[in-house]
């Protein structure tokens, strides 16, 4: 595949420079760049810097607003947000920042967002909340990717669900999962790399199983757990799309399809101030007991260790900070071309031990 490794800070600097060259404010460019590189570090390559090219293209076209007019209306513990068609990470983070004081007053804040765009990996926002000793549930809809049970045409998005719970020792407990067998972004990445996808991931337009990523993108991704994943995706669609006032189902526009309509992606968050539910020290003691007992469960044959959700992620982050982020030749070529168009040089690769190549 011709994978080379790049320093996280170099890729972050490049992404931020590209976005600011497109008139995205520096603070917003920082948020988006941090989200992308954090995803790469965590091994979520489908939501990493490979997304920068399409973000930049849509901002340049005006299909995504570089400087969105984000409007937040409060009613009790509920925030209703008009994202102004901004970059999804910017809209989501601005909304969450506004929700911190609401959660502090009420114990939780419910946030329903419309007129947004792809917001990267939801785990990024969970990590942000955990650093503030807050818990977060994050949902978003997405362009059609999953067929309804018994159907052969995509209707629901791959609609991920994420949770973040802070810990006093060790990494936070982070759950971030798609309603589908696999995130659609991984199929997009496979198509760009010219690689087949595993059986059981997707079907073509006729509902037949396929390993061709191009056919899969024209068809549908299969829900995780069959009818259970379909039901989960439908619930996420109601909260993120119907309840927020955003587009839902086939009305959510695909960022990768040409055209001038805004995506109108919807997000839904529940932000919890743990200290309003119980003393924070009590919470941390109970979490430590829970995780200690979880990891002490007798291991199955062949299992070396029991990890709680978020531990493996933290280890991948440390490893990639040390060894660099691997990027395929195709992704690098796209980013180099993007850099030239923005007059921002793409950084060079590093060696396996982190030395400049």
TrEMBL record:
UniProt KW tRNA processing keyword: no
Signal peptide: none
GO molecular function: oxidoreductase activity
Domain of life: Bacteria
Pfam families in alphabetical order: Ldh_2
Keywords carried by this UniProt record: Oxidoreductase
Claim: Methyltransferase is one of the keywords in the record: no
Similarity field: Belongs to the LDH2/MDH2 oxidoreductase family.
Protein name: Malate/lactate/ureidoglycolate dehydrogenase, LDH2 family
Organism: Planifilum fulgidum
């Amino acid at each position: 595949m011709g994978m080379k490794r790049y320093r996280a800070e170099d890729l972050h600097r490049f992404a931020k420079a590209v976005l600011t060259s497109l008139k995205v404010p520096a603070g917003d460019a920082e948020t988006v760049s941090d989200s992308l590189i954090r995803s790469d570090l965590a091994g979520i390559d489908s939501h990493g810097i490979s997304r920068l090219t399409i973000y930049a293209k849509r901002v340049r076209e005006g299909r995504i607003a570089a400087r969105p007019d984000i409007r937040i209306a409060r009613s009790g513990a509920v925030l209703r947000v008009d994202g102004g068609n901004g970059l999804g990470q910017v809209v989501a983070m601005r909304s969450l920042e506004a929700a911190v004081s609401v959660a502090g007053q009420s114990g939780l804040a419910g946030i329903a967002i419309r007129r947004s765009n792809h917001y990267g990996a939801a785990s990024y926002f969970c990590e942000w909340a955990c650093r503030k000793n807050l818990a977060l549930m994050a949902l978003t809809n997405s362009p059609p990717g999953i067929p309804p049970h018994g159907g052969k045409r995509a209707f629901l998005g791959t609609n991920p669900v994420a949770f973040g719970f802070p810990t006093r020792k060790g990494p936070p407990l982070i759950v971030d999962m798609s309603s589908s067998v696999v995130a659609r972004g991984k199929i997009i990445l496979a198509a760009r790399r010219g690689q087949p996808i595993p059986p059981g991931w997707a079907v073509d337009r006729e509902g037949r199983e396929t390993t061709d990523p191009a056919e899969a993108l024209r068809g549908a991704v299969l829900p995780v757990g069959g009818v259970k994943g379909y039901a989960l995706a439908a619930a996420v669609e109601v909260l993120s799309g119907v309840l927020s006032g955003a587009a839902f189902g086939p009305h959510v526009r695909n960022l990768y399809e040409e055209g001038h309509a805004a995506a109108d992606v919807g997000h839904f968050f529940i932000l919890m101030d743990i200290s309003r539910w119980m003393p924070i020290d009590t919470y941390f003691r109970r979490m430590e007991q829970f995780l200690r007992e979880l990891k002490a469960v007798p291991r199955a044959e062949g299992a070396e260790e029991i990890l709680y959700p978020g531990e493996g992620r933290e280890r991948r982050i440390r490893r990639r900070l040390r060894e660099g982020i691997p990027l395929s030749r195709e992704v690098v070529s796209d980013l180099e071309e993007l850099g030239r168009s923005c007059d921002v040089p793409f950084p060079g690769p590093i060696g396996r031990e982190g030395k400049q190549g």
